[in-house]
Amino acid sequence: MTTKPFVSQLDSVMEVPSTRAMFFGAGLATAAWAAIIPIIKSNIGIDDGTLGLLLLCLGVGAISSMPLAGAVATRLGCKLVMLVTVSVFSLVLILLPLATSTFQLAVLLTIFGFGIGATDCVMNIQAILVEKRADKNLMSGFHGFYSLGGICGAGVMAALLTLGISALQACILVSVFVVGGLFYFHRGLLPFSNPKEGPSFALPHGPVLLIGLICFSLFLAEGTVLDWSGVYLAEYQNVPHSSAMLGLFCFSLTMTLGRLTGDNTISRFGSRLVLTTGGLLASAGMFLAISASDLNLALLGYALVGLGCANIVPIMFSATGKQTSMPQSLAVPAVSTLGYIGVLAGPASVGQIAQYFTLPVALYLIALLIALATLVSLRVRL
């Protein structure tokens, strides 16, 4: 049972905007790193295979941090953990452009991933607690600010780099903005978490396992669109390379809009209808994007995938806060970890399937996976 420790009226008013700021900052920093990948790759002189292994370091750092972050937040509270983890990944973001060797980059990416993963876990714990305390739907909006941060980060970095500002200077600006936001909004971060119940770590089971598998599937699909939509449009639908990223843009735009309006949509139509309709819409959109012979239809398909996926993961995190089979301090890290594994596994698994059965077959399987995850979601209590 979640307790409600005393906080000042100002702190209480700040809870929602502070939570939104944490999601936005994490999305902004992640997008900033993605924007400088080609620059760092060129500076160090690494090939694609080495880059893939380095990106795995980031993922390992993130996954390893999540169970630990949940346990520490239970003991020390959400505020203290996020003050540390956001400061860590913001500092490391500045150091990434300074890396001069593969070893340095591997170490920095592991620490960066650790900070991002821990922040992701704890900000979702905070989001669940704030949603409960407010007694209204807020989760989709929180995740919407993460998506908004990603779009803003990509746009700002592209603009800064185009203007001739160095990668280091651009990362400093982003980091200062994120840390400034952290200390401006810190009063709304919760100085507590759920009380400790049971062990510090436990394997997911019951509804938490189902929720985790659904998040795994959806994050896998999102990672696939991120890494493979441009390749598919360019190589299989003969779209010019200059236009190949339009699929990802349409996906990101509708996902962000869907999440920012998702709380009102869920309040009006209910979580179950939004979840089921969204899953079917995303699956159908993926089929359309793959099979369309016209670019506009393909882009419509990617837009439908983004809109359909938008609120599924937020609804699953809200369900994580309502289930009683596992303490929230264990359930949220478990769901976050499974979801992040999906992000890492998606692009790699699609590549392996494509090598043996072609890329369209691999993407059709992702569409079927979304439909299957939607079917499994019927067993989750919302």
Automatic annotation (TrEMBL):
<keyword id="KW-0472">Membrane</keyword>
<protein>
    <submittedName>
        <fullName>Major facilitator superfamily MFS_1</fullName>
    </submittedName>
</protein>
<feature type="transmembrane region" description="Helical">
    <location>
        <begin position="21"/>
        <end position="40"/>
    </location>
</feature>
<feature type="transmembrane region" description="Helical">
    <location>
        <begin position="241"/>
        <end position="261"/>
    </location>
</feature>
<dbReference type="InterPro" id="IPR011701">
    <property type="entry name" value="MFS"/>
</dbReference>
<feature type="transmembrane region" description="Helical">
    <location>
        <begin position="201"/>
        <end position="221"/>
    </location>
</feature>
<keyword id="KW-0812">Transmembrane</keyword>
<feature type="transmembrane region" description="Helical">
    <location>
        <begin position="356"/>
        <end position="378"/>
    </location>
</feature>
<feature type="transmembrane region" description="Helical">
    <location>
        <begin position="167"/>
        <end position="189"/>
    </location>
</feature>
<feature type="transmembrane region" description="Helical">
    <location>
        <begin position="299"/>
        <end position="318"/>
    </location>
</feature>
<dbReference type="InterPro" id="IPR051788">
    <property type="entry name" value="MFS_Transporter"/>
</dbReference>
<feature type="transmembrane region" description="Helical">
    <location>
        <begin position="80"/>
        <end position="99"/>
    </location>
</feature>
<dbReference type="GO" id="GO:0022857">
    <property type="term" value="F:transmembrane transporter activity"/>
</dbReference>
<dbReference type="Pfam" id="PF07690">
    <property type="entry name" value="MFS_1"/>
</dbReference>
<feature type="transmembrane region" description="Helical">
    <location>
        <begin position="105"/>
        <end position="130"/>
    </location>
</feature>
<feature type="domain" description="Major facilitator superfamily (MFS) profile">
    <location>
        <begin position="1"/>
        <end position="382"/>
    </location>
</feature>
<feature type="transmembrane region" description="Helical">
    <location>
        <begin position="330"/>
        <end position="350"/>
    </location>
</feature>
<dbReference type="GO" id="GO:0016020">
    <property type="term" value="C:membrane"/>
</dbReference>
<feature type="transmembrane region" description="Helical">
    <location>
        <begin position="52"/>
        <end position="73"/>
    </location>
</feature>
<feature type="transmembrane region" description="Helical">
    <location>
        <begin position="142"/>
        <end position="161"/>
    </location>
</feature>
<dbReference type="InterPro" id="IPR020846">
    <property type="entry name" value="MFS_dom"/>
</dbReference>
<keyword id="KW-1133">Transmembrane helix</keyword>
<dbReference type="InterPro" id="IPR036259">
    <property type="entry name" value="MFS_trans_sf"/>
</dbReference>
<feature type="transmembrane region" description="Helical">
    <location>
        <begin position="273"/>
        <end position="293"/>
    </location>
</feature>
